[in-house]
Amino acid sequence: MIVINAGVFSSASTWVSNIARGLLQASGGGPVISAYADSLTEVRRPLPLPDDMHLMLKTHHIKRDLLLLIAAGAAKAIVPMRDPRDCIVSLMQRFHRSFDAALRDVSSSLAHIDAIPSQGVLALRYEDRFAEKRETILKIAAFLGVNSRPETVAKLHHDFSVAEVSALVARIPTMPEGDIVRRVDSIAHKNTGLHTNHITDTLSGKYARLLTPSQLRIAEDALFHALEKHGYGGQAEAGLVSAASFSTTDAAVRSGDRIEIAADERPICAVFGPYFNLPIGDWAVRFRTDVDCGVDIVAGGRLVGFGRSSDLLQFSIDDPWSEVEYRVYTVPTVNAFRGVVLSRPAPLRG
Predict the structure, then answer these.
(1) Does residue 221 belong to any structural domain of this protein?
(2) pLDDT (tens digit, 9 = 90+) per residue, 141-158?
(3) What is the pTM of this model?
């Protein structure tokens, strides 16, 4: 059996991997190989693999080959989800990441996860406190089709409770070198994947008091597609990426909730950014400017669209790693930019 645990950062995905692995080991089948891998090519194991082997993979940036396995029914996928704004805060707290770095990590992870089929997967929601409930262990066992003996469930529930995990994490720095892996920003326990930055307060909704208003606005701009898809709300207007998320050249200045663009006879780039990730697929964008002007769209360093700001421009994303940039150019009159509005065009009916 191949099990793929594809969760966004800070969504209790390590708990999910340990529970699934424990259930597979207790089922009496073959060996369980556990690894972090975004693709099968990253699983470094000697071939051929045993016929009765279980493969337990954890990923934050799932790639096409694993997606194909899920779509074909050749792998079982568990998808833990958390409010993306809390994911950002958790990375900032646990790894001392800057807001921008945490936002990039969460944005790219969600852009990859978006491609996972919605049917035939087990979705878990952090806000339901799933990692604290025996019922979740039973739910995972049923999804995997393995035995969930009471003693197995009780042991897993105890061993991976917040109290036990916190105690194990506290012991990691004093463990023998053979039991740990030293990373740049933490020390990890080999057997469980838990590391010294693993647990903070597990609170939900903490973004509201820990992100500044400007950070919250930018986060909701970047993550609008995931907030909407997973029911976390956040935006007054769906798909709006506000001017606050963009950068300016010397040809423009910020003024409240818009960017003022100077007049120039030459078409000079005045506004650019914000380099957010988007899920794979077709997209439409409308630029909000007071005066019609030249605009273009760049994804992964490649021009994917251009035209006038009065146009509804369409473009495609084929790689969720691609950071998307929108550019606005000067015209002979003073102009103002208020952001872009993104949407997904309705599929054509044959």
Answers:
(1) no
(2) 999 999 889 999 999 999
(3) 0.91
